[in-house]
Request: fold
Amino acid sequence: GCILPMAGSSPAVDMHEVPNEEEEQAAPSIITQVEGVFTTKLPEEYQIPDDPIVLEGHLSRSGLSSMLNDLLSLEEPVVFDFIVNGQFLRTSLAEFYTQYGLSSEVACKIEYVLAMPEPETAEVTQEEEWLSCIEVIEGTGSGLYATGSMKGSWSLYTSEGHRKLFGQRDSDASVLALAGRENTVVTGSRDGLVRFYSLGEGNKSPELISSANNGIR
Reply:
């Protein structure tokens, strides 16, 4: 036999047919295109009309850079960087718009600048001590610079080839300041002493010619 529902009771419901509230919520729309206006402060040769352009959402920095090169008809390819909403673009446009909650229906300003190349290290000067200051010695002609260390020593180098000419420690107090011009170098240490050196001729070792204490203890 069948079991009939009691009068006034609700009919049996298959729980599998109950709609899931989460399923009823609309899935976030996928951004496929955005509208942008390119702007720049670069010279006229890098400027394009500031008309709104429809851009594919999958485009990232490299794709936009290639597009700009085509629009500008540059003889030599140039790498550009792009700033959207005050942030450098490091993802696709679609991901960027989603991350920052931007509307794809509103034209967004996209500023482009020349990309900075990766820094190249030509030569490295190795010091055994932590450096506290560095100073170019002006007027020497041969190009010299001095470095001061946290352990109280200072050294003199050639700008070309970074050859060490001289190194001296006058105290254990850190060298906090350096100044130099022509044949004179002045050092200032944490112990309050200011020392004056004469460089001499022919890159000879500097000679301490005088010192003064500014009263710091």
About this structure: The longest helix spans residues 61-72. The domain at 33-114 is CATH 3.10.20.90 (Ubiquitin-like (UB roll)). Confidence is low (pLDDT under 50) at residues 1-13, 15-19.
